[in-house]
Structures are given as structure tokens and as C-alpha cells.
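Hey, can you fold this one?
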Amino acid sequence: MIPLDDARIRASFVNASLRERRAVPLPPAPESLSRDGLDYLGWRDPKQPKLGYVVAEVDGTPVGVILREADTRPRSRAQCAWCNDVELPNDVVLFVARRAGDAGRRGNTVGTLLCAGFECSRNVRRLPPSAYLGFDREAARDRRIDALRDNVTAFLRDVRGTG
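Sure. Predicted structure:
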């Protein structure tokens, strides 16, 4: 991930007005966060727990989106669309993001099921169980990390309207 400071984080939000960007509560010390093992920066709003924020690198630039947790919960154990973890130690919820630009102003949104606390980077780095004799667990983990990055990028491009 590229280095992020407060100004870059605020400027990255593609589905927010200038007023909304200024109101975004920033994660604690983003410049001090370790980039190792972090495929995207995700955090929840401490004052408005239904709001979440995600910033990731897309085509060499940071792209951020504001997400709102849906009021309804999945009826059964859901699978995160980003990390695709089937043995999740955490909850999965439906998040909705307003599309960027004119589409968002008209009320168009994009929704996806995500780990409630944005734990995807940690989830994909756990070694998967051995599926069969000779199963390469390291290669499987590397494929999961690549898939997470692809899924995050695809979602952000969809919100941005460059899908």
C-alpha cells in the first residue's frame, strides 16, 4: 500500500462531498500503520458505528469510499465477498456505498458482504487447512491474498464508475 497521511486519506474519498470528507474521522495515526500485511485500510466510525471507511490503492492512487452498514443482517452465516473466508472468526455484514459522481447523486449504490471490522487482510494470511496430501498451503495463501486485492480493487472501481 502507498504511504497515506491525513490529507491523502481525505482527498481519496470518491463518493463523498467536501463536507463529508472533512467530517471523516481518521484512523489512529495512519502514517504509522504497518503496510506489511495490509491490503487496504478499513475502519469504523467510533461515533456513528453504522459507518465504515475503506481506502486502497487502485491504479497507483489511493481510492476511498464511505460505507454504510445495512440495518438488516444476513439470515444465515454469510461469507465475506472480499476475503471469501469460510472459517471466519468474525461477523459479516452488508455494507452499501453510494456511487461516485452523478450516479451517486441520483441515489445509485453498490452493496457487498464484508467482514464487520475489516479483518480481511488478517483472514487471508492465515494458512488454510491442508485439503489433500501434498497441498501447497503457502501457495493457497498467496492466491487468497491476490484474490483479496482483486476483489477490493473491483469493488472500488465499481463505486468509482470505472469498473
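The chain has a mean pLDDT of 88. Let me know if you want another pass with a different chain boundary.
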